[in-house]
Amino acid sequence: MDSHANSQETGSAAAREDFADPRDGSVNIARVALDRHVESGHGVQVALRWLGKDGARRDLTYADLRDLSARFASVLRDHGLNRGDSVFVLMGREPELYACALGTLRAGLVFTPLFSAFGPEPIRTRMEIGGANVLVTTAAIYRRKIAPWRDQIPTLKLVLIVDGDGDAPEGCTALGPALDAASPDFPAVATAPEDPALIHFTSGTTGKPKGALHVHGAVAYHAFSGRHALDLQPGTIFWCTADPGWVTGTSYGIISPLVNRVTMIVDEAEFDLDRWYSTIQAEGVQVWYTAPTAIRMMMRAGAEAAAPYDFSSLRFLASVGEPLNPEAVTWSAEVFGQPFHDNWWQTETGGIMIANQPGMEVRPGSMGKPMPGITAGIVDRTEGGLRELHDGEIGELALRPGWPSMMRAYLHEEARYAKCFVDGWYLSGDLARRDAEGYYWFVGRADDLIKTSGHLIGPFEVESALIEHEAVAEAGVIGIPDETAGEIVKAYVTLNPGFEASDGLERVLRGHARKRLGAAVAPRAVLFRKSLPKTRSGKIMRRLLKARELGLPEGDISTLETDET
């Protein structure tokens, strides 16, 4: 693997909890997440409660999920797949997805989840980079998105189809009958802590997506951070709304909750306000982990939409994906009786690095403090290396490497990976500041920072001010070149129901921003849109707004979910 992984022993002793199998010293995520609990007498506990789009329900106990994952591992073995081979899964949130993920890890293969909504080209690009040997998908997705170019992926040996009654497209294998015929006796392979386990793709502003590689030893930090950042305890009813195609949906939608022996709620359907509120009430959800985009959609519907529901089961609410606006924190405290707790991490970090942990004072707009054992800093790049900045100064958020869930490589891009590490720091590419009490505040991506008339402006600050106005549902802010000021601030907003775009409202919003931020920081123009371009994880794609404004190349837009219209 890489030299950075052990360059500095960060992470507390608790974060390096010993999950080694006492029989051989191996660490296999599937064994830690499933077998361990079954062997200790908890096999009858519900591990996964699946809610179908059509109202169907299915409970899988820890014993059920262990057996299903073992059968999937047997299917892989029976088809000649070997340890280290690569399994891609392209499907919705079906129970089989979770069995495939854990069965892949059990067998010592490498699991890569993809969004089922991806188009053919993003799928193909990722499968080529990852050297896919197995693809698990549905018949419809296969026929529409895979079949035309399948033969052009020479590494692809097996395509498993999850739906249907035993029928599968030509050249594919029906997974259901294969699982029924497979052996449930497949002990977890004795993988070492540094053996590859997961690949998550993350998009850059230019070029192809990056494949971040994570190892089995990451499970120690998944377990630790789930307990300390999300209050996951044995028996907790936990709902992570993220799709496993996004790293949150795997780290905290599969691994961390199962390792901590919770009962996971998995909803097949996409966001629907009443369905979500009903699910919390009916299932007695205790810990809820979701994204700012969903929270803003709830805010847009108003407190009255939440009034008929009982949220008394909730004890902890958390948010991730992009910074959580202060207004959303205040709103959630009023509507749910407690605030959403923002946290920060990246695909590359593999787990939560900075968080508003349970019991901490929540400062609206702050992403919290570093997790126990994580050393963070604010740095500035200079010709001689890095310079650490003082409290209150804006710079790049950096971490001391060495925590267990840190990525070990970008696939086939050693130079790109090496550039992430300078002078004993991992450089995140995010700009932030730290206050005197140690709270960290997100400013923006380094390439999102706006420089106008000598001022450095983070778009998040301007967006948060705009969202405070009752008319604004979402906002995206960019800098536009200007001969005099260098750049000027331009905002794109979507409106809440009951408000119509007009010149008068545009003036009102600019005036509101000037009052809150001052003339130097406030946007010079506000444009109205029906929607803003966002990734499937909910991040507003500011670079895409800017590229379209300036007629520049759009770069990788394979994770684009919604587009401006």
Automatic annotation (TrEMBL):
GO BP field: acetyl-CoA biosynthetic process
One Gene Ontology molecular-function label: ATP binding
Domain AMP-dependent synthetase/ligase intervals: 44-411
Pfam families assigned: AMP-binding (PF00501), AMP-binding_C (PF13193)
EC number, UniProt record: 6.2.1.1
GO cellular component terms, A-Z: cytosol
Key words of the record: Acetylation, ATP-binding, Ligase, Nucleotide-binding
Domain AMP-binding enzyme C-terminal: 461-539
Signal peptide interval: none
PANTHER family: ACETYL-COENZYME A SYNTHETASE, ACETYL-COENZYME A SYNTHETASE 1
Protein name: acetate--CoA ligase
Organism encoding this protein: Sagittula salina
